[in-house]
Amino acid sequence: xxxxxxxxxxxxxxxxxxxxxxxxxxxxxxxxxxxxxxxxxxxxxxxxxxxxxxxxxxxxxxxxxxxxxxxxxxxxxxxxxxxxxxxxxx
Length: 90
Prior knowledge:
Number of domains: 1
Structural class: mainly alpha
Order of helices and strands: HHHHH
């Protein structure tokens, strides 16, 4: 089922479902860095990480889990030199 159809079926916003999908993709891709928590407890951070190139995801999640990373870092530093959104996946 596509995200739009799922969002409609469960009466949730399409944006919320899309964010959860992005967060789950990051969590799945970096399962080996020790972050195995529920995506809902770090949803906004994982969504921000998803916008970065996927090869950066493990390092960004490690920094997030270690507490050395903030939302300010997510929205700024790791996107320098790259077009925000260019690595996004649907």
